[in-house]
Amino acid sequence: MMSARKEGTIGSIFATSFKGELPARFAQLKKDISPSDPSVMHDAWQRLERAFQEEAPIIKSMGSKIIPQVNFKDIVDGNFPSDMKEEIKKRGCVVIRGVVSEDVANSYKQQVLDYIAAHPGEIPGFPDNDPQVWELYWSKAQVEARSNPNFLQATTALNRLWYAEEDSKVDLETNLTYCDRLRIRKPGDESFKLREHLDGGSVERWEDDNYRKCFSEILAGEWEKHDSYNVTHRLDAKMQLYDAPGGCEMFRTFQGWLSLSNAKSGCGSIRFCPLVKETTSAIIMRPLLQDLLETPSLGGAYPGTQIDIDPVLLPQITDICVPVPDIHP
């Protein structure tokens, strides 16, 4: 019989909620999964640093413009324009404009505001004293938005950027409804600020056998061969070994949101590191370099949290993060 997971808010998965060091067994795990020849990882890291150095000037000069942008009307039969697919996959992010009309978006927003106002004190949120992220999942507006035909068309296009090896038990043509919480950020708010992080599991990326297979080329020192869009081993990966409140065990091809308001670039909106292969490789490899290999440390990964991207350990990532372009309803 499964026990109910402890309730929590989005604050439950912040890395800052973990106290103490990782158990010593993680030091042995790292030795077990590292190449027997230390020079393999050392040489791979040097190649990776050169790749970051080559891309960094381009990203910094373009800023938010580096993030691909697509008009919904250009998504035909659930497919992105052919000339955009590889760029979206390289950057790991995309802005899709015009998924719903401004009138529809405003209607969704007002419905949500009315629902919250009608249930004072009944809906948990974070921070406690002035909620910006509400533990609200199944309001009428949220259900309508997730089932909007245009929304389904857009997410189908995202799903089709992935692939699976033959005989894998996955259907990338069928959308499943994923319910997520709701964020209403107040202008100028300073109480809910996240630095760079990674969702979808934490220490599980190294600890779980199936999850680790997703990064086998990286762990072998051949990060250039890694394909972030191969779903095969993610199907049986355990992304939650520690039953964390606020965590997610569902595989998501992409993580995103439907904007219901205007948000200026760099004014509190999300930031991305637009190099998905290199970023993934750096996160997986960094704890296996010689300065950390003998320690339990997995960089910014801790049980039951997201992965915190430490700017001291991974400046290659934090130095080239850019804000999402201006967003509209």
Automatic annotation (TrEMBL):
<dbReference type="InterPro" id="IPR027443">
    <property type="entry name" value="IPNS-like_sf"/>
</dbReference>
<protein>
    <submittedName>
        <fullName>Uncharacterized protein</fullName>
    </submittedName>
</protein>
<dbReference type="Pfam" id="PF07350">
    <property type="entry name" value="Gig2-like"/>
</dbReference>
<dbReference type="InterPro" id="IPR010856">
    <property type="entry name" value="Gig2-like"/>
</dbReference>
